[in-house]
Amino acid sequence: MLAATICASHGAAITAALVSLPVPAAAIVAAGLALSAIEHVRLALHRTPRAVVGLEFAADGSLAVAGPADDWSPATLRSAAVPVPWLTVVTLRDAQQRRRSVVILPDAVESEAFRRLRVWLRWRSPARGRRAGGE
Fold first, then answer.
1. What's the rounded Cα separation, in Å, for the pair 25 and 80?
2. Which of 75, 98, 118, 130 could potentially form a cystine with 65 if both were Cys, beta carbons 3.0 to 4.6 Å apart?
3. Which neighbouring-strand residues pair with 74?
């Protein structure tokens, strides 16, 4: 479903570019949008090394992230965390200083774990969040 939405939105953007731009510019924009669609679909399907397949939050404020190869590494929670009942967005930096964003929906985890995650994100102290990845 997500991959279809990504393809549809990129397809609409390509169509708009083809209709509104001169042919040489439209070709460049269409090529860029096609590459963008491929990369975003790979991210959505967890087919890229940057994909996040697991998060581990500890009571002491530490955070670890797992990639598609099930390789866990420490991470640091960044300031952008949206803990609302229907969606949680977590932005973090991994040990290689790569920025990763994770969207967590309530049906992706157990309801009690989702509630604990939202509470942890809402009530964590900023100092503890900065210290989590060893920075």
1. 35
2. 75
3. 64
The domain spans of the chain are: 2-44, 54-131
DSSP 55-83: EEE-TTS-EEEE-TT--EEEEEEEEEEEE
Structural contact between residues 128 and 63, judged by C-beta atoms closer than 8 angstroms: no
pTM, full prediction: 0.57
Taking each helix axis from N to C end, the angle separating 23-44 and 2-20, rounded to the nearest 10 degrees, works out to: 170
Helix (H) or strand (E) holding 51: none
5: tokens are 């939405």
Q: Mind listing the pLDDT tens digit for each residue in 63-117?
A: 888 877 778 888 888 765 677 788 888 888 877 887 887 888 888 888 888 888 8
